[in-house]
Amino acid sequence: MKGNYAYVADHWGGLVVIDVSDPVNPVKIGNCRVADAMEVAIAGNYEYIVDGSNGLVIIIEKTESPRTERARERKGHVIC
After folding, report:
1. CA 52, chain centre distance (Å)
2. Cβ proximity of 38 and 6 under 8 Å
3. Can you tell me whether residue 29 is helix, strand or coil?
4. Does residue 60 register a pLDDT over 70?
5. d(Cα 48, Cα 56) in Å, to the nearest integer?
6. Which Pfam family would be a valid example here (predicted)?
7. What residue segments make up the domains of the chain, in order of their start?
8. Cα→Cα distances 6→3, 15, 55, 73, 79, Å
9. pLDDT digits (tens, 9 = 90+) for 6-27
C-alpha cells in the first residue's frame, strides 16, 4: 500500500491498482499486464514486480494508468 492505493500482484491479471480511500467501496483504477505477477514492492515512485515467467519488471508510478518504464525480461518487453 502507498497512500490510498493498494498495489496487488494478481498473477495472470498483472499488477492491479486499487483506490482504497473508502475501504467499504474499493475501486480498481488501473492495471498493468505482466505474464505472471507474483510479488510487488514499492520504493519511491516505482513498483517492482516479480514476474514468475519473465523476471523483474519495473514500473513508474502513474496511479490511474500504471505503465512500464523499463523491463529486464527474457522474452521481450511488457507494454501497459
Report:
1. 14
2. no
3. strand
4. no
5. 7
6. LVIVD
7. 5-73
8. 8, 10, 22, 25, 21
9. 889 999 888 888 889 999 999 9
